[in-house]
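User: quick one, fold this
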Amino acid sequence: MLPGFSLHGPNGELANLVEAGLTAFEALSAATRSAAEFLRLEREIGTIAPGKRADLVLLDADPLADVRNAAKIAGVMVRGRYFPKAELDRLLDEQAARYATPRDRFAGLPALPKDGTSEVDATFEIRCEGYAVGSERLTRRRLADGSRILSSQSSIDPWWETRTSLRLETGADGIDRKLEIERESIDGTAHLRLERRGDRSHATGSRPAYGAIEFDEPLPPGTLFGGPILSNGFASDMTVTFVHALPAIADMAVGDSRELRFRLIELNSAEFFRNATLGDMTWTVRRDADETAPAATRVFRVTTNGRAGRGGYDATIRIEPGAAAPLEIRAGEGNWQPWTYRRL
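Assistant:
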Protein backbone atom coordinates (compact mmCIF):
# COMPACT_ATOMS: atom_id res chain seq x y z
CA MET A 1 0.00 0.00 0.00
CA LEU A 2 2.01 2.94 -1.30
CA PRO A 3 0.80 6.34 -0.05
CA GLY A 4 -0.84 8.34 -2.84
CA PHE A 5 -0.55 5.67 -5.52
CA SER A 6 -2.87 3.25 -3.71
CA LEU A 7 -5.55 5.98 -3.50
CA HIS A 8 -6.15 6.28 -7.24
CA GLY A 9 -6.73 4.09 -10.28
CA PRO A 10 -9.39 1.51 -11.15
CA ASN A 11 -8.55 -0.53 -8.03
CA GLY A 12 -7.66 2.42 -5.82
CA GLU A 13 -9.12 3.00 -2.38
CA LEU A 14 -11.39 5.87 -3.44
CA ALA A 15 -12.97 3.91 -6.31
CA ASN A 16 -13.35 0.86 -4.07
CA LEU A 17 -15.15 2.88 -1.41
CA VAL A 18 -17.59 4.32 -3.95
CA GLU A 19 -18.16 0.88 -5.47
CA ALA A 20 -18.90 -0.39 -1.94
CA GLY A 21 -21.71 2.16 -1.61
CA LEU A 22 -20.25 5.43 -0.33
CA THR A 23 -20.88 8.63 -2.22
CA ALA A 24 -17.89 10.44 -3.71
CA PHE A 25 -18.22 13.04 -0.94
CA GLU A 26 -18.21 10.36 1.78
CA ALA A 27 -15.15 8.67 0.26
CA LEU A 28 -13.25 11.95 0.04
CA SER A 29 -14.31 12.84 3.59
CA ALA A 30 -13.04 9.47 4.85
CA ALA A 31 -9.63 10.33 3.42
CA THR A 32 -9.55 13.84 4.90
CA ARG A 33 -11.96 15.23 7.50
CA SER A 34 -13.08 11.94 9.08
CA ALA A 35 -9.52 10.68 9.33
CA ALA A 36 -8.45 13.89 11.09
CA GLU A 37 -11.37 13.65 13.50
CA PHE A 38 -10.56 10.02 14.30
CA LEU A 39 -6.96 11.01 15.10
CA ARG A 40 -8.22 14.07 17.05
CA LEU A 41 -6.23 16.33 14.75
CA GLU A 42 -9.19 18.19 13.24
CA ARG A 43 -7.84 21.53 14.50
CA GLU A 44 -4.68 21.03 12.40
CA ILE A 45 -5.61 19.04 9.29
CA GLY A 46 -8.52 17.46 7.44
CA THR A 47 -10.32 20.51 6.01
CA ILE A 48 -9.37 23.79 4.37
CA ALA A 49 -9.61 26.62 6.87
CA PRO A 50 -7.52 29.55 8.14
CA GLY A 51 -4.82 28.46 10.57
CA LYS A 52 -4.77 24.83 9.46
CA ARG A 53 -1.76 23.18 7.85
CA ALA A 54 -1.56 23.99 4.13
CA ASP A 55 -1.50 20.44 2.78
CA LEU A 56 -3.69 20.78 -0.30
CA VAL A 57 -4.26 19.24 -3.72
CA LEU A 58 -5.49 21.18 -6.79
CA LEU A 59 -7.43 19.12 -9.35
CA ASP A 60 -8.26 19.65 -13.02
CA ALA A 61 -11.74 18.09 -12.64
CA ASP A 62 -14.47 17.81 -10.02
CA PRO A 63 -14.06 14.68 -7.83
CA LEU A 64 -17.67 14.96 -6.63
CA ALA A 65 -18.85 14.35 -10.20
CA ASP A 66 -16.52 11.32 -10.52
CA VAL A 67 -14.26 10.28 -7.66
CA ARG A 68 -11.67 9.12 -10.22
CA ASN A 69 -11.08 12.79 -11.02
CA ALA A 70 -9.08 12.92 -7.76
CA ALA A 71 -6.20 11.47 -9.80
CA LYS A 72 -6.23 14.46 -12.22
CA ILE A 73 -3.76 16.44 -10.17
CA ALA A 74 -2.70 19.91 -11.32
CA GLY A 75 -0.51 20.57 -8.28
CA VAL A 76 0.13 19.83 -4.64
CA MET A 77 0.84 22.19 -1.75
CA VAL A 78 2.81 20.67 1.13
CA ARG A 79 3.01 22.81 4.26
CA GLY A 80 2.71 25.95 2.19
CA ARG A 81 5.10 25.01 -0.63
CA TYR A 82 3.45 24.55 -4.03
CA PHE A 83 4.54 21.81 -6.47
CA PRO A 84 3.00 22.11 -9.97
CA LYS A 85 2.45 18.89 -11.91
CA ALA A 86 5.57 19.42 -14.01
CA GLU A 87 7.71 19.50 -10.86
CA LEU A 88 5.95 16.46 -9.41
CA ASP A 89 6.68 14.55 -12.64
CA ARG A 90 10.32 15.67 -12.49
CA LEU A 91 10.67 14.43 -8.92
CA LEU A 92 9.20 11.05 -9.87
CA ASP A 93 11.58 10.78 -12.84
CA GLU A 94 14.54 11.55 -10.57
CA GLN A 95 13.40 8.91 -8.12
CA ALA A 96 13.13 6.32 -10.90
CA ALA A 97 16.60 7.26 -12.18
CA ARG A 98 18.10 6.78 -8.71
CA TYR A 99 16.68 3.28 -8.48
CA ALA A 100 17.74 2.44 -12.05
CA THR A 101 21.36 3.37 -11.36
CA PRO A 102 23.43 0.82 -9.43
CA ARG A 103 24.49 2.37 -6.15
CA ASP A 104 27.03 1.72 -3.46
CA ARG A 105 24.89 0.25 -0.69
CA PHE A 106 27.79 0.50 1.74
CA ALA A 107 28.46 4.20 1.18
CA GLY A 108 29.19 5.90 4.48
CA LEU A 109 30.04 2.68 6.31
CA PRO A 110 33.62 2.12 7.48
CA ALA A 111 35.79 -0.44 5.71
CA LEU A 112 35.76 -3.93 7.20
CA PRO A 113 38.75 -4.62 9.49
CA LYS A 114 41.96 -6.05 8.05
CA ASP A 115 43.67 -7.20 11.25
CA GLY A 116 45.22 -10.67 11.30
CA THR A 117 45.01 -13.28 8.54
CA SER A 118 42.01 -13.49 6.25
CA GLU A 119 40.01 -16.74 6.31
CA VAL A 120 36.87 -15.45 4.58
CA ASP A 121 36.25 -12.39 2.42
CA ALA A 122 32.95 -12.38 0.58
CA THR A 123 30.16 -10.14 -0.71
CA PHE A 124 26.65 -11.43 -1.31
CA GLU A 125 23.79 -10.06 -3.37
CA ILE A 126 20.44 -10.54 -1.64
CA ARG A 127 17.43 -11.18 -3.84
CA CYS A 128 13.74 -11.49 -3.02
CA GLU A 129 11.24 -12.84 -5.54
CA GLY A 130 13.81 -12.30 -8.30
CA TYR A 131 14.69 -8.71 -7.39
CA ALA A 132 18.00 -7.52 -5.95
CA VAL A 133 17.04 -5.90 -2.63
CA GLY A 134 20.33 -5.63 -0.76
CA SER A 135 23.94 -6.68 -0.22
CA GLU A 136 26.04 -8.06 2.61
CA ARG A 137 29.82 -8.10 2.87
CA LEU A 138 31.81 -9.93 5.51
CA THR A 139 35.27 -10.97 6.57
CA ARG A 140 36.61 -13.48 9.09
CA ARG A 141 40.12 -12.77 10.41
CA ARG A 142 42.36 -15.06 12.46
CA LEU A 143 44.44 -13.16 15.02
CA ALA A 144 47.89 -14.04 16.32
CA ASP A 145 46.51 -15.59 19.52
CA GLY A 146 44.29 -17.98 17.53
CA SER A 147 41.06 -16.10 18.17
CA ARG A 148 38.83 -15.02 15.29
CA ILE A 149 36.84 -11.89 14.46
CA LEU A 150 33.87 -12.19 12.09
CA SER A 151 32.67 -8.81 10.80
CA SER A 152 29.70 -8.13 8.55
CA GLN A 153 27.77 -5.23 7.06
CA SER A 154 24.32 -5.66 5.55
CA SER A 155 22.45 -2.97 3.59
CA ILE A 156 18.82 -3.59 2.57
CA ASP A 157 16.89 -1.32 0.22
CA PRO A 158 13.54 0.36 1.00
CA TRP A 159 10.93 -0.51 2.00
CA TRP A 160 12.67 -3.08 4.27
CA GLU A 161 15.45 -0.55 4.69
CA THR A 162 18.11 -1.38 7.28
CA ARG A 163 21.89 -1.00 7.57
CA THR A 164 23.39 -3.47 10.01
CA SER A 165 26.96 -3.84 11.29
CA LEU A 166 27.96 -6.99 13.20
CA ARG A 167 31.14 -8.06 15.01
CA LEU A 168 31.52 -11.55 16.47
CA GLU A 169 34.52 -12.58 18.57
CA THR A 170 35.36 -16.28 18.89
CA GLY A 171 38.11 -17.58 21.16
CA ALA A 172 40.99 -19.81 20.10
CA ASP A 173 38.98 -22.69 21.61
CA GLY A 174 36.21 -22.11 19.04
CA ILE A 175 33.74 -20.78 21.63
CA ASP A 176 31.87 -17.56 20.82
CA ARG A 177 32.68 -14.81 23.31
CA LYS A 178 30.98 -11.59 22.26
CA LEU A 179 28.55 -10.38 19.60
CA GLU A 180 27.98 -6.68 18.91
CA ILE A 181 25.24 -5.29 16.65
CA GLU A 182 24.43 -1.80 15.40
CA ARG A 183 21.38 -1.39 13.18
CA GLU A 184 20.04 1.75 11.52
CA SER A 185 16.40 1.59 10.43
CA ILE A 186 13.46 3.92 9.92
CA ASP A 187 12.61 3.78 13.63
CA GLY A 188 16.12 4.71 14.83
CA THR A 189 19.38 2.97 15.69
CA ALA A 190 19.83 -0.09 17.91
CA HIS A 191 23.07 -0.86 19.78
CA LEU A 192 23.24 -4.34 21.31
CA ARG A 193 25.88 -6.59 22.84
CA LEU A 194 25.68 -10.29 23.73
CA GLU A 195 28.49 -11.73 25.88
CA ARG A 196 29.28 -15.20 27.24
CA ARG A 197 29.92 -15.23 30.97
CA GLY A 198 30.70 -18.78 31.99
CA ASP A 199 27.54 -20.80 31.44
CA ARG A 200 25.35 -17.71 30.99
CA SER A 201 24.76 -15.09 28.31
CA HIS A 202 24.50 -11.41 29.16
CA ALA A 203 22.77 -9.02 26.75
CA THR A 204 22.89 -5.23 27.09
CA GLY A 205 22.24 -2.19 24.91
CA SER A 206 19.41 -0.03 23.70
CA ARG A 207 16.70 -0.17 21.06
CA PRO A 208 14.27 2.40 19.65
CA ALA A 209 10.91 2.20 21.46
CA TYR A 210 12.31 -0.26 24.04
CA GLY A 211 15.07 1.91 25.50
CA ALA A 212 17.81 0.25 27.55
CA ILE A 213 17.76 -3.55 27.81
CA GLU A 214 19.63 -6.04 29.97
CA PHE A 215 19.11 -9.81 30.15
CA ASP A 216 21.14 -12.50 31.90
CA GLU A 217 20.19 -16.09 31.08
CA PRO A 218 21.55 -19.65 31.15
CA LEU A 219 23.49 -20.60 28.01
CA PRO A 220 23.52 -24.29 27.01
CA PRO A 221 26.95 -25.71 26.09
CA GLY A 222 27.86 -25.55 22.40
CA THR A 223 25.51 -22.65 21.65
CA LEU A 224 26.60 -20.43 18.76
CA PHE A 225 25.95 -16.70 18.61
CA GLY A 226 24.25 -15.31 15.50
CA GLY A 227 21.72 -13.01 13.94
CA PRO A 228 19.90 -10.82 13.53
CA ILE A 229 17.37 -11.23 10.75
CA LEU A 230 18.09 -9.11 7.67
CA SER A 231 15.25 -6.66 8.30
CA ASN A 232 11.61 -6.54 9.34
CA GLY A 233 10.40 -7.91 6.01
CA PHE A 234 12.75 -10.91 6.11
CA ALA A 235 12.27 -13.83 8.47
CA SER A 236 15.69 -15.20 7.51
CA ASP A 237 18.98 -14.46 9.23
CA MET A 238 21.88 -12.42 7.92
CA THR A 239 24.30 -14.27 5.64
CA VAL A 240 26.95 -14.01 8.35
CA THR A 241 25.02 -16.51 10.51
CA PHE A 242 25.22 -19.13 7.75
CA VAL A 243 28.93 -18.45 7.22
CA HIS A 244 29.56 -18.74 10.95
CA ALA A 245 27.82 -22.15 11.01
CA LEU A 246 29.91 -23.70 8.23
CA PRO A 247 32.89 -24.87 10.35
CA ALA A 248 30.44 -26.78 12.57
CA ILE A 249 29.08 -28.79 9.61
CA ALA A 250 32.10 -28.91 7.27
CA ASP A 251 33.06 -32.48 8.24
CA MET A 252 29.58 -33.94 7.58
CA ALA A 253 29.42 -36.82 5.11
CA VAL A 254 26.61 -37.29 2.62
CA GLY A 255 23.55 -38.52 4.50
CA ASP A 256 24.71 -37.19 7.89
CA SER A 257 22.40 -35.09 10.06
CA ARG A 258 23.38 -32.68 12.84
CA GLU A 259 21.76 -30.15 15.13
CA LEU A 260 23.13 -26.66 15.82
CA ARG A 261 21.88 -24.47 18.64
CA PHE A 262 21.95 -20.65 18.31
CA ARG A 263 21.32 -17.69 20.55
CA LEU A 264 20.43 -14.82 18.24
CA ILE A 265 20.15 -11.09 18.58
CA GLU A 266 16.51 -10.43 17.66
CA LEU A 267 15.30 -7.21 16.07
CA ASN A 268 11.81 -8.13 14.87
CA SER A 269 9.95 -8.71 18.09
CA ALA A 270 6.58 -8.06 16.44
CA GLU A 271 6.82 -11.49 14.78
CA PHE A 272 9.32 -13.37 16.94
CA PHE A 273 8.79 -12.14 20.47
CA ARG A 274 11.18 -13.28 23.16
CA ASN A 275 12.40 -10.62 25.57
CA ALA A 276 12.18 -8.25 22.58
CA THR A 277 15.88 -8.84 21.90
CA LEU A 278 17.04 -12.48 22.11
CA GLY A 279 15.90 -15.54 20.22
CA ASP A 280 16.89 -19.22 20.53
CA MET A 281 16.91 -21.35 17.41
CA THR A 282 17.84 -24.91 16.57
CA TRP A 283 19.01 -25.89 13.09
CA THR A 284 18.65 -29.44 11.85
CA VAL A 285 21.25 -29.78 9.10
CA ARG A 286 21.37 -32.65 6.59
CA ARG A 287 24.15 -33.22 4.06
CA ASP A 288 22.63 -34.05 0.67
CA ALA A 289 24.31 -35.60 -2.31
CA ASP A 290 26.77 -33.32 -4.05
CA GLU A 291 25.72 -31.49 -7.18
CA THR A 292 27.94 -31.71 -10.24
CA ALA A 293 26.45 -29.04 -12.51
CA PRO A 294 27.35 -26.37 -13.30
CA ALA A 295 30.24 -27.12 -10.91
CA ALA A 296 30.89 -29.51 -8.04
CA THR A 297 29.16 -28.21 -4.90
CA ARG A 298 28.32 -29.58 -1.48
CA VAL A 299 24.66 -29.26 -0.52
CA PHE A 300 23.31 -28.82 3.01
CA ARG A 301 19.59 -28.70 3.85
CA VAL A 302 18.62 -26.69 6.92
CA THR A 303 15.34 -26.86 8.82
CA THR A 304 14.78 -24.42 11.68
CA ASN A 305 12.29 -24.39 14.51
CA GLY A 306 12.01 -20.61 14.38
CA ARG A 307 12.87 -18.16 17.10
CA ALA A 308 11.59 -19.15 20.51
CA GLY A 309 9.97 -22.15 18.82
CA ARG A 310 7.77 -20.02 16.56
CA GLY A 311 7.69 -19.91 12.78
CA GLY A 312 10.77 -21.37 11.16
CA TYR A 313 12.02 -21.72 7.63
CA ASP A 314 13.91 -24.15 5.42
CA ALA A 315 17.13 -23.27 3.65
CA THR A 316 19.63 -24.78 1.25
CA ILE A 317 23.33 -23.96 1.45
CA ARG A 318 25.53 -24.64 -1.58
CA ILE A 319 29.28 -24.46 -1.09
CA GLU A 320 32.18 -25.29 -3.38
CA PRO A 321 34.72 -27.86 -2.13
CA GLY A 322 37.34 -26.16 0.02
CA ALA A 323 35.51 -22.82 0.09
CA ALA A 324 35.03 -20.97 3.37
CA ALA A 325 31.89 -19.10 2.24
CA PRO A 326 28.74 -20.42 0.53
CA LEU A 327 28.26 -20.03 -3.17
CA GLU A 328 24.53 -19.61 -2.64
CA ILE A 329 21.96 -19.71 0.16
CA ARG A 330 18.26 -20.11 -0.52
CA ALA A 331 16.25 -19.33 2.62
CA GLY A 332 12.51 -19.40 3.13
CA GLU A 333 12.08 -22.36 0.79
CA GLY A 334 8.50 -23.53 0.85
CA ASN A 335 7.55 -20.05 2.00
CA TRP A 336 5.63 -17.54 -0.13
CA GLN A 337 8.63 -15.20 -0.13
CA PRO A 338 11.99 -16.99 -0.63
CA TRP A 339 15.31 -15.14 -0.37
CA THR A 340 18.51 -15.92 -2.26
CA TYR A 341 21.99 -14.87 -1.14
CA ARG A 342 24.43 -15.23 -4.03
CA ARG A 343 28.15 -14.70 -3.58
CA LEU A 344 29.54 -12.15 -6.01
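User: anything notable?
Assistant: The helical segments are 13-19, 24-31, 33-38, 85-100, 239-249.
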